[in-house]
Design a protein that fits this description.
By secondary structure, the chain is an alpha/beta fold. It contains four helices and seven strands; from the N terminus they run E-H-E-H-E-E-H-H-E-E-E. Helix 1 crosses helix 2. The structure holds adenosine-5'-diphosphate (ADP) and magnesium ion.
Length: 140
Amino acid sequence: MIARVVETASEAETLDLARAVAARLAPGAVVLLRGDLGAGKTAFVRGLADGLGVPDDQVSSPTFTLVQVYQGRLPLLHADLYRITTAEVEDLGLDEAGEAGVLAIEWAEKLARPIPGAWAILLEDLGDDRRRITIDTPPA
Ligand code: ADP
Ligand code: MG
């Protein structure tokens, strides 16, 4: 895996970074997002959505629906595992869900098993609006 570490100084910069990642995503790509509450996981997914051509304002934290689907250049599935148990995660069948599109998973820490070939994004709050974002790119 190739790790890239970027510091952003605003939500806008995080969105730009996520758009750049979106440009590199192919059907079946999985993006695992880790980081504390407020770190910017949902913001990052908004940037992915924008980069994939999803119309504005569709993206929120899918806290109650568990998985939301947005239509862009590729379908984007957005899951948030914050409120569910590890056992329930198994039932979602996320591994198979994203084959035609892109699957983005917030709170990927809760996955019982790793998803091979996934992108791994770690967001850390450095204070104020600064975030350290570590991007592990899957092997080509
Ligand atoms: P999470 O999904 O990780 O809980 P959100 O994306 O919902 O976090 O919230 C991140 C919050 O932090 C938003 O209010 C956003 O405006 C703010 N923020 C401030 N600076 C940044 C940054 N550099 N990158 C991303 N979000 C930022
Ligand atoms: Mg969120």
